[in-house]
Amino acid sequence: MTRALVGLAALGAVAWTMPALVACGGVNEVVCEGRIEGNRCIIDPIEDTSTGTTDAAPPQDTSQPPKDTSQPPKDTSQPPKDVAVDTAPDPEWVCEPAFEATKPIGAACGRHCECETGYCYDEAYLGDFRFCTRECDGDCGKGANGLDNQCLNLNNSAFASYNLTLTWICQRGCVTLDDCAAYSGVYDSCGTGTNVTQWLNQTLATQSSCTILSEVK
Question: What's the rounded Cα separation, in Å, for the pair 148 and 145?
């Protein structure tokens, strides 16, 4: 059987009229490879896949971000060195047990720990001579000889001149110099006059107390 084929004549649709079928000995037939509408053969265009384009996926970025090879700056600062702290005890409070807090008011002393009151006077009254005392609170008590200890008022012209910190202090009362000798041989007078204790011609107490004349005149 011989078949006449109708191929693609163009990309567009092709329509043609089918001729009459004739049979002579064999069978001659015209074949429509499209679709037949009435007496017409319609051939739809065939998608040209050889040139057809399809949106391609964007190329993948396979590059890598540059590595940060920089190093943070090293801390070259050094921690502060320990400052040596002087932990040595204050010598004013270091006494041998036999001398600790053993001396009464008026007794000569070299450091605070020796005094029963905890204070070895270290200001200007009586010069460099130090004696056990305390701040006067209106009553300084009695000494071992039964005499009243005297409350000395240092609030005079010497107070500012010598930069004193205590206004009133207690001192050993006396009647004669012998009352002072038991506390220190440095004392050379019982008061600075009859029943009076003075310093730089100003009265500290209206009673006599152990003193050093060369330091108060």
Answer: 9
Please give the backbone phi and psi of residue 41, each rounded to the nearest 5 degrees, phi first. Answer: -105, 120
pTM of the model as a whole:
0.59
Quickly count: other Cβ atoms within 10 Å of residue 29's Cβ: 13
Q: Which residue do the tokens 């059987």 mark?
A: 1
Q: DSSP letter at 125?
A: T
Contact yes or no for 121/133 (Cβ under 8 A):
yes
Could you list the beta-strand ranges (E) of the chain: 2-5, 14-17, 23-24, 26-31, 35-37, 40-43, 150-153, 168-171, 189-190, 197-199, 202-205, 210-211
Pick the closest to residue 149 from 130, 165, 168, 162 (CA basis): 168
Number of H helices, E strands in the chain: 3, 12
pLDDT of 23-60, one tens digit each? 444 445 556 666 777 677 777 666 555 555 555 555 66
11 exposure class (CB count in 10 Å sphere: 0-12, 13-18, 19+): exposed
